[in-house]
């Protein structure tokens, strides 16, 4: 319905003055269904739930593992989206934003292999393990839902969205 919004035209959308926080929140949550958004992730997970229900007629699946995977995918997907919004706000090129998002997400997911490299430095290993996305996501795939993992993903999303708002405010007032 509306054309894709560029980050350079922030003051008004359709004649309505909006704050940067509202614009970033809208882009994060639903922007349009052609892109990778939490709404599109939820839609695909609802469709996969149909397959889980079909399997449930044949065998008794472990529903905690299924719902743990769904929650984990939603949280990791939200983290990747917030990283993408930050990189997109920094650069003008969509290709550079996509490659940067892929690179940063790849580094966060493979953080466990870096921890093995720094096994002699315990303080660095502790920091790397704290930032590891795959270690926290593996708990969800086991069907174990820890509040600290949920808080980690939500706070990382909030951090990247906060940085995006700050960068766009800086661009707006310069």
Short description:
The chain is built from eight helices and two strands; from the N terminus they run ββαααααααα. It is mainly alpha-helical and 174 residues long. A hairpin with a 2-residue loop joins strand 1 and strand 2 (16-17).
Walk me through what this model shows.
The chain is 74% helix and 2% strand. The chain has 8 helices and 2 strands. Strands 1-2 form a two-stranded antiparallel sheet. The protein is globular, with a radius of gyration of 19 Å.
State which percent range the strand residues make up.
Answer: under 5%
Overall tally of domains = 1
Order of helices and strands: EEHHHHHHHH
Number of helices: 8
Question: What is the β-strand count?
Answer: 2
- Low-confidence stretches at least 5 residues in length (pLDDT < 50)? 1-10
Question: What structural class results from the helix and strand content?
Answer: mainly alpha
> What is the mean predicted local confidence, pLDDT?
80
- Rounded radius of gyration (Å): 19 Å
How would you name the oligomeric state of the polypeptide chains in this document?
single chain
Shape: globular
Termini separation: 31 Å
* Major sheet strand order: 1-2
Helix content: over 70%
Notable traits:
174 residues; mainly alpha; 8 helices; 2 strands; disordered N terminus
SSE layout and pairing:
Elements: E1 12-13, E2 16-17, H1 20-29, H2 38-58, H3 63-90, H4 94-109, H5 111-117, H6 122-131, H7 133-141, H8 147-173
Helix pairs in contact: 1-8, 2-3, 3-4, 3-7, 3-8, 5-6
